[in-house]
Design brief:
The protein has no helices and 16 strands. It is globular, with a radius of gyration of 16 Å. The relative contact order is 0.12.
Length: 191
């Protein structure tokens, strides 16, 4: 049965983007605030706490978000600021070399506690995906850049070498849309 998502002061409304993954859900409202609820065991709730929440709480960021993507224990948002990610950064249960996948420049921590800028790319992405193994961003000119675990070629650069820095995916032309799962990345060319 559908239920209204509640905040500390009423129901969550004016949603422009919503995403759920694993045991965490997040949404962005029209003013650009990001709200998360559910599990926060890897700080994916964005509240500097591992406590779960049964109501939507605003995350610890400066606002201005336009979209959100949740992938289990990690969350990324997009806005005029670029991209921010937080949550589980390294996961030895999925990743062959336990390589950082959030692109924040922190390659040693297993968790990124607060929303942090994705600084492995030099553009404001139009789309971002994150999985248990790797992350990818779509540039305004249709290039796909990926980073993280590459044990099965997830990064699309013709190797199986893990990389915490973004590498350009070898594609024949500009991409319109992309998606990813734990062990794959897919893209559709621009018409």
């Amino acid at each position: 049965t559908p239920a209204t998502v509640m905040t500390g002061s009423g129901s969550l409304s004016s949603i422009v983007s919503i995403s759920a993954g694993g045991t965490t859900s997040c949404a962005v409202d029209s003013p650009g605030n990001t709200w998360c609820w559910g599990n926060s065991g890897d700080y994916q709730g964005g509240r500097m706490s591992t406590s779960s929440s049964n109501i939507a709480d605003t995350i610890y960021d400066s606002g201005g978000s336009t979209s959100v993507v949740v992938s289990g224990p990690a969350v990324c948002t997009l806005g005029s600021y670029g991209a921010n990610c937080w949550g589980r950064n390294r996961d030895p249960s999925f990743s062959s070399q336990n390589t950082a996948r959030l692109g924040t420049g922190d390659t040693s921590s297993s968790q990124v506690v607060v929303p942090s800028p994705v600084n492995v790319i030099a553009f404001v992405p139009t789309s971002i995906v994150t999985t248990a193994t790797h992350s990818c961003a779509l540039s305004p000119v249709g290039e796909v850049w990926c980073w993280g675990d590459n044990a099965q070629g997830y990064l699309g650069n013709g190797t199986t070498v893990d990389n915490p820095n973004a590498v350009k995916v070898n594609l024949p032309g500009p991409v319109e849309v992309m998606t990813a799962g734990t062990a794959h990345t897919c893209a559709i060319d621009r018409p």
